[in-house]
From TrEMBL:
Superkingdom to which the source organism belongs: Bacteria
Pfam families: ABC2_membrane_3
Topology in membrane: Multi-pass membrane protein
Keywords assigned by UniProt, alphabetized: Membrane, Transmembrane, Transmembrane helix
This protein's GO CC annotations: membrane
Coiled-coil ranges (or none): none
Naturally occurring in which organism (per UniProt): Umboniibacter marinipuniceus
Protein location: Membrane
InterPro entries the record matches: ABC-2_transporter (IPR052902), ABC2_TM (IPR013525), ABC2_TM_bact-type (IPR047817)
Claim: Transmembrane helix is one of the keywords in the record: yes
An example Gene Ontology molecular-function term: ABC-type transporter activity
UniProt name for this protein: ABC transporter DrrB family efflux protein
Length: 333
């Protein structure tokens, strides 16, 4: 018992003296609770979505519709983008100037039409379209695979680097002609091959089983996966470039993974959420990877359509890897 108490005391003192880890353990749950409260604090959840095409909509009608309970308006810059979502049952109706589009295959479109007509006397022309709903499974598959890649890229690389540093493995590497950039580049390529291979095998196997909707190029989806994985591996290396303890590394990696899981659209769409949430989400590479993957898979987007997300992922990879190589230390202080 005496030995047990001595070890217990020593371990607690060690933890309390590690101020960075202690601070992180206190701050992380607070930040998480505040973030959830901000995102999900509104109890008046919308059940229906009305697309508003900004260039042609009647603002008076939009205001009247916006006052309806359980109904949310979402603005679109282009009618084609809104129409695609209407055909896939992702929104329930589109308002235009003196007209509206509804999906004749969607029961929710019918309900929203009745709601809108009950609050306006404006003569509106109904233009029906048709289209089958995208299953939630088809929508969420990129999110699940992306989340799996995120954990594998971040914890599978950054955590290992810190352990290498702590165990003195990096110190021995320093005695060789290997540069920091070469060492880190090898880590990126190694993990990239593993993650891409595993993700591809899972996707192909699940596709054979559930017959996913894939309207765009599968090869382009592979390019998105490779760039997305490379950006997250590089980010992990940057975070581990100077980290000395595994506890702190775990805290820093959680600092990145949890917001990405909540804000990058893994489980639900951020459409209609506050503008500040979109700004925060745009910081994370997972957001751009999922945006591009879903555009290709569910909307048939081409390379030109997803050029911006791909560019963001490529720039993130190069910048994070360069900074990691610049800041990298081989041994513990």
């Amino acid at each position: 018992m005496k030995a047990f108490l001595a070890i217990l005391k020593a371990r607690n003192i060690e933890f309390l003296r590690d101020r960075s880890t202690l601070s992180w353990n206190l701050l992380f749950p607070v930040l998480l609770i505040v973030g959830f409260a901000f995102m999900f604090g509104n109890d008046d959840k919308a059940l229906y979505k009305v697309g508003v095409v900004a260039a042609v909509s009647s603002e008076e009608l939009v205001f009247e519709v916006g006052e309806l309970k359980y109904l949310e308006t979402v603005r679109y810059s282009h009618l084609a983008s809104a129409m695609q979502r209407l055909q896939h049952h992702q929104i329930d109706i589109i308002l235009g100037d003196g007209t509206y589009w509804l999906n004749s295959d969607s029961p929710k479109s019918y309900v929203v039409e009745r709601m809108i007509l009950s609050v306006t006397d404006e003569p509106l022309e109904a233009l029906p379209v048709s289209g089958e709903a995208i299953r939630y499974l088809d929508w969420v598959v990129p999110g699940i695979l992306g989340m799996n890649m995120m954990f594998s890229c971040l914890f599978g690389v950054g955590y290992v680097i810190v352990r290498y540093r702590k165990n003195g493995v990096l110190k021995r590497f320093q005695a060789t002609p290997v540069s920091a950039l070469s060492f880190l580049a090898a880590q990126v390529v190694s993990r990239l091959v593993v993650v891409t291979l595993i993700t591809s095998v899972i996707f192909i196997a699940m596709d054979l089983m559930f017959d996913f909707v894939v309207l765009g190029s599968r090869w382009l989806m592979l390019v998105v996966a490779i760039l997305g994985a490379a950006s997250m591996i590089s980010l992990s290396l940057l975070m581990a470039s100077r980290t000395q303890s595994e506890e702190l590394a775990g805290g820093l990696l959680n600092l990145v993974t949890w917001p990405m899981m909540m804000l990058s659209g893994v489980w639900f769409s951020l459409e209609g959420s506050p503008e500040v949430v979109h700004w925060l989400a745009a910081v994370f590479p997972l957001t751009h990877m999922l945006e591009a993957a879903r555009s290709i898979m569910l909307e048939g987007a081409t390379l030109a359509d997803v050029a911006i997300p791909l560019l963001v992922l490529a720039v993130t990879t190069v910048v994070a890897l360069a900074l990691a190589a610049r800041l990298f230390v081989w041994r513990q202080n």
